[in-house]
Amino acid sequence: MEGWDPSTKSTLTQIPLLSTKAGPRDGAAWTQRLKEEYRSLIAYTSMNKSKDNDWFRIAANADGTRWTGKCWYVHNLLKYEFDLQFDIPMYRGGKICLTVHFKPLWAKNCPRFGIAHALCLGLAPWLAAEVPILVDSGMVKHKDDTASASES
């Protein structure tokens, strides 16, 4: 956890770790893994709400392999909202397939880290780093700006 700011460390230590090594093809073990995923997501969401830092909504299909929702980031007092969607392609044994960027992190923490950890360590910092740049460069426009431009 070295290299992470104290706030991220504090948040990460409060998200429950997972213990079940299972993928979608593993039947009852996968059901147990999903219960652990939901438990950690609920804890992370509750923690964010208590800190007035609510920034995503997410739900899964019945199999727990396709997740959809919304995430948002406030920049210059404007809320920018994005669709959130991912599939969980998993190897046998509960290892989530991730890009090269996350591979070292997950290699050390599999199967203890799950979706809530990926949101905390992946999507949250990405939104904080990239949304201001995308907005300032004009690549992302606020929905009110888009609506007023089309009305003109």
From TrEMBL:
The keyword Protease does not apply. PANTHER family: UBIQUITIN-FOLD MODIFIER-CONJUGATING ENZYME 1. It comes from the Eukaryota. InterPro entries: UBQ-conjugating_enzyme/RWD, Ufc1. The keyword Protein biosynthesis does not apply. Keywords: Ubl conjugation pathway. GO terms for biological process: protein K69-linked ufmylation. Belongs to the ubiquitin-conjugating enzyme family. UFC1 subfamily. It holds the Pfam family UFC1. GO terms for molecular function: UFM1 conjugating enzyme activity. GO terms for cellular component: cytoplasm. This is Ubiquitin-fold modifier-conjugating enzyme 1.
